[in-house]
């Protein structure tokens, strides 16, 4: 068993990484339960795709506003201590959502306010977690394996969380999804506190924040692998990965189905993503990451178009499995390309740009998909998104000489 672990999942040979991964695997189930409950709750409240998209946009707006500055904070302070703070705050906000819904005090405007605060914390939490991985595995030798395993945990939770949320919402009510999420953050905090590591920062001080940010952006522009990865992350996630907004509308208004079907559809996406993440962790090699990125972007675009065409619930499940596989192939390899090519002293800034384009542009994608679903239907929104994805793929394919 130990030899099997070292051969296929060498990142697990690092104690600190095992603690981090275990805590995340538990916490992410709660996160996906909360996400599924919130999207269903908001659409049930408003019956407006635009307002569903607006909620997601409000959550991710702070990522757009604060991510570049977060990179400097990450390089200035120990990442473990930053994560203890951010995970504690996310626990608090999940508990507030539970309390408000328990007493029937949760309204759409209050949800928007809380989501803004959650997004503000995530603007610091997301790039910190991304750049922390290389420290947990003590270098770049097992980095791609660790990123793949992180994606596996994320997507195992995507598989389990929405299905459990659908069952819990149908039988007991959405509020219990928020309580479980709050409690799940304790697993992460315990793991962080149990780690044995020196809490050191990459930099002793920040003299000129704007100058330092510009230095990081210039470095990305001068490195073709970084630059074209960032360009692809601007296009593909923004226009092709708006499942949280579109799937509840697609389930309710196009397939004419209810909570449990919605949970299964989201879990199908998670199943495909889990398979893709394990595949990248086991088979992925540094030299092949750019090829996997191209394959992921192409497959994602084609299956988005197929999802818009099919009207069978069972076929939609199958298409979403493939969508999850190609989505995670693109995401994981894009992340690893940035980390492999990031110097230690700039990792915080480079991963903050990753968070900016991957999450910070989500408001644009959410408003785009919510508006499109409102006026032309969710199935047509998937088709349009797939066509845009093919345009993004063609840009990357033209630059294949950098492979």
UniProtKB/TrEMBL annotation:
Q: Organism, per UniProt?
A: Caloramator australicus RC3
Q: What is this protein called?
A: Permease
A GO CC term attached to the entry: plasma membrane
**Keyword tRNA processing attached:** no
The record ties this protein, via CDD domains, to: MFS_MefA_like (cd06173)
Alphabetized InterPro entries for the sequence: Bacilysin_exporter_BacE_put (IPR022324), MFS_dom (IPR020846), MFS_trans_sf (IPR036259), TM_effector (IPR010290)
Q: Which compartments is it annotated to reside in?
A: Cell membrane
Query: Domain Major facilitator superfamily (MFS) profile: where?
Result: 11-403
Keywords (alphabetical) are: Cell membrane, Membrane, Transmembrane, Transmembrane helix, Transport
Chief location of this protein within or outside the cell: membrane
Look up keyword Chaperone and say if it applies: no
Q: Kindly name one Pfam family recorded for this protein.
A: MFS_3
The membrane topology of this protein is: Multi-pass membrane protein
Q: Name one GO molecular function term.
A: transmembrane transporter activity
**Ranges annotated as spanning the membrane:** 20-43, 49-70, 82-100, 106-123, 173-194, 226-250, 262-282, 289-309, 315-338, 350-368, 380-397
Origin: domain of life: Bacteria
């Amino acid at each position: 068993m130990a030899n099997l672990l070292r051969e296929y999942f060498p990142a697990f040979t690092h104690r600190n990484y095992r603690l981090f991964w275990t805590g995340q695997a538990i916490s992410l189930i709660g996160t996906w339960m909360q996400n599924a409950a919130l999207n269903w709750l908001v659409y049930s409240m408003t019956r407006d795709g635009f307002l569903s998209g607006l909620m997601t946009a409000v959550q991710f707006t702070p990522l757009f506003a604060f991510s570049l500055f977060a990179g400097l904070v990450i390089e200035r302070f120990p990442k473990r201590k930053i994560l203890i703070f951010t995970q504690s705050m996310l626990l608090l906000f999940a508990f507030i959502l539970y309390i408000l819904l328990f007493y029937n005090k949760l309204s759409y405007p209050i949800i928007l306010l809380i989501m803004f605060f959650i997004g503000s914390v995530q603007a610091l939490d997301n790039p910190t977690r991304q750049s922390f991985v290389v420290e947990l595995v003590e270098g770049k030798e097992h980095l791609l394996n660790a990123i793949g395993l992180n994606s596996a945990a994320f997507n195992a939770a995507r598989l389990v969380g929405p299905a459990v949320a659908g069952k819990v919402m149908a039988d007991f009510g959405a509020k219990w999804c928020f309580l479980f999420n709050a409690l799940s953050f304790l697993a992460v905090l315990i793991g962080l506190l149990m780690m044995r590591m020196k809490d050191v920062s990459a930099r002793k001080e920040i003299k000129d924040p704007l100058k330092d940010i510009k230095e990081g952006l210039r470095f990305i522009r001068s490195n073709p692998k970084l630059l074209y990865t960032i360009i692809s992350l601007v296009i593909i996630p923004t226009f092709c990965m708006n499942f949280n907004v579109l799937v509840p509308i697609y389930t309710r208004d196009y397939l004419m189905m209810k909570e449990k079907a919605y949970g299964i559809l989201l879990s199908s996406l998670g199943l495909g993503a889990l398979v893709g993440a394990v595949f990248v962790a086991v088979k992925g090699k540094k030299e092949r990451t750019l090829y996997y990125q191209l394959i992921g972007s192409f497959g994602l675009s084609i299956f988005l178009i197929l999802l818009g065409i099919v009207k069978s619930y069972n076929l939609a499940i199958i298409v979403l499995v493939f969508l999850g596989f190609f989505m995670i192939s693109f995401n994981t390899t894009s992340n690893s390309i940035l980390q492999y090519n990031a110097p230690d002293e700039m990792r915080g800034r480079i991963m903050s740009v990753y968070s900016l384009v991957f999450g910070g542009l989500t408001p644009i994608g959410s408003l785009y998909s919510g508006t499109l679903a409102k006026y032309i239907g969710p199935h047509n929104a998937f088709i349009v998104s797939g066509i845009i994805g093919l345009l993004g793929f063609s840009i990357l394919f033209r630059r294949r000489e950098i492979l």
